[in-house]
Write a structure and sequence with these properties.
heterodimer; A: about 270 residues; mainly alpha; globular; B: about 270 residues; alpha/beta
């Protein structure tokens, strides 16, 4: 009975978020178009590198390299955004007090949000891939798709944890918490080798890159899709991802619980509170 | 305590003026906002207790504390014997709240918003739809308006949906924080009648804050008056008026309210309810 109640509550977040996407379909279309154009622009950079440098390069490899970076980042950023905006969105609409006073555990709340976010991120990323595939000849003949899916799942785990951490920020800093989560996301983008190998970064940034789950997700995806590495060879990327996920998710939940308590103690749940 | 729907015991709540996790926060007592200074009140099962007070007197803070949206500095709040701090989920199952601002996802329809709430409280979609239709029909909101985005409904209609949201989950303690704000006199009457019916039919207890004296008088079994975070009087409407009878003239409730709240209070001057 209790499980059924929790499942219904988790489904409430999935259904509500789906209804919001349906309601604001125009906004979704514009945002998807932007993401497709961005993916195309970055991938064309790879296509144009021979013309820019005047030297022979493996353009097909470079295109695939950039495309993997673009798509994986599009997905991971969507997961991160979906969770980190769980609170800021409700604050914006003014519904946060009603959601937080419902008899729902925070785990259920975040599980429902996560389930929707992952489904939404996958659909969105596949749509981007489908359109980009019309412009470029993408050869995935060597790819290990099963390995790629496993790496993506591992990356999802860590990004769920990071997203929960970022969701706390608007509770602690009502005026600037959301912007702070964008800054976190930008830092991950810089250090994780989304569009370039992390070896080009200065040594101190490379040390930071080793702490970012996106680094392992990107390297693992490229190893699986570009090099066709088998699962045992992907373990070096999978293990840190799973480990980070197992640390980040519970720590994120604890941080969220502490943040919620702080907001309730200081009256920061609602701006006029 | 047996038979008490709500038992507020010597609750104090202050808010910091500014600061970052208390590091930059001024420490002096004058730098803190004292929202509640030792409030005690009890609502027996089935009673409607009206809570009157000027703006900023602590009414909404008290409602938020009972709703587990704030944590008191000291004191206890029991809802049907459950401690709001130690057993928040049990308390949340028993309560619901209507505030003056109808907080919803305004892009979603009334039905979508109410389905979300119902699922959070463990109701099935079918039950939620049936109850929603019943309650909104009772409040005079039917037909196509249920399937239009909330942002397209008038302020009064939105408030009726907010009232329906609270009643949908069959709470045994209702926290009505200026529930009829924004309603026309006819709708106000309908809502007041509905509150009385719910009390009788569902054995619900109600804490009602309002600025409308006639509403407080019509609905409340007893009325507590709060000023500067302290309960300064608590009695039946007639009892309160009798206290201020002068030369045979029985004052109106508004005159009593003005007499009790239009002056500065000594720190020790407070009473329980």
């Amino acid at each position: 009975m209790r499980l059924l109640r929790e499942l219904r509550a988790a489904y409430a977040f999935i259904e509500r978020n789906f209804n919001l996407v349906k309601r604001y379909w125009g906004w979704e279309l514009v945002w998807l178009t932007y993401s497709i154009v961005e993916a195309l622009a970055i991938t064309y950079l790879g296509a144009g590198i021979e013309a820019i440098t005047g030297q022979r390069v493996d353009t097909a490899y470079l295109i695939l390299y950039l495309l993997v970076g673009t798509l994986v980042w599009a997905y991971l950023a969507t997961v991160f955004d979906g969770l980190s905006e769980a609170i800021s969105w409700e604050r914006w609409e003014g519904t946060i007090e009603y959601t937080l006073m419902a008899p729902v555990s925070r785990l259920t709340h975040l599980l429902g949000t996560t389930a929707f976010t992952i489904a939404y991120g996958l659909v969105r990323t596949l749509l981007i891939l489908a359109v980009v595939a019309l412009f470029f000849q993408i050869d995935l003949g060597r790819a290990n798709l099963t390995g790629a899916i496993l790496v993506l799942l591992g990356g999802s785990l860590s990004f769920i944890g990071l997203g929960i951490f970022a969701a706390v920020l608007p509770l602690l800093f009502p005026e600037r918490g959301e912007q702070m989560s964008y800054a976190v996301q930008a830092l991950i983008l810089l250090i994780s080798g989304i569009y370039y190998p992390i070896e080009v970064l200065p040594p101190w940034l490379q040390r930071l890159a080793a702490l970012s789950p996106a680094t392992y997700a990107l390297q693992g995806m490229r190893a699986a899709l570009l090099e066709g590495e088998l699962i045992p060879a992907l373990a070096g990327y999978l293990l840190p991802l799973v480990l980070m996920g197992l640390i980040l998710i519970p720590c994120g939940l604890i941080a969220f619980s502490l943040g919620e308590r702080y907001a309730k103690r200081t009256g920061k749940l609602k701006r006029s509170g | 305590m047996e038979g008490l729907a709500l038992d507020v015991q010597d609750v104090t709540k202050t808010f910091p003026v500014a600061g970052l996790f208390g590091l930059l926060r001024p420490k002096g007592p004058s730098e803190q906002i004292i929202a509640l200074a030792g409030v005690s009140l009890a609502v027996p099962r089935g009673e409607i207790l009206g809570l009157l007070g000027p703006n900023g007197s602590g009414k909404s803070t008290l409602v938020r504390l009972i709703a587990t949206l704030l944590i008191p500095d000291s004191g206890r709040i029991l809802v049907f014997g459950h401690d709001a701090q130690r057993e928040p989920r049990e308390v949340r199952r028993l309560i619901n709240r209507v505030s003056a601002d109808a907080a919803f996802f305004k892009g979603l329809t009334a039905m979508e918003n109410l389905l979300f709430t119902a699922r959070l409280y463990g109701l099935s979609g079918r039950t939620a739809r049936r109850r929603t239709l019943e309650i909104l029909a009772r409040l005079g909101l039917e037909g196509q308006s249920l399937h239009r985005p909330l942002e397209q409904l008038s302020r009064g209609m939105q408030q009726k949906v907010a009232i329906a949201r609270a009643f949908l989950t069959s709470p045994v303690l209702l926290l009505l924080d200026e529930p009829t704000t924004g309603l026309d006199p006819y709708s106000r009457r309908e809502v007041q009648q509905f509150i009385l019916e719910v009390r009788t039919d569902h054995d619900a207890s109600v804490l009602l804050t309002t600025h409308a004296m006639e509403e407080a008088e019509r609905l409340s079994d007893r009325i507590a008056i709060i000023a500067e975070g302290r309960i300064v009087a608590c009695d039946t409407p007639t009892g309160l008026k009798e206290r201020f009878r002068l030369n045979g003239h029985l004052p109106t409730l508004e005159e009593v309210f003005l007499a009790l709240t239009g002056r500065a209070f000594e720190l020790e001057e407070r009473c329980g309810c």
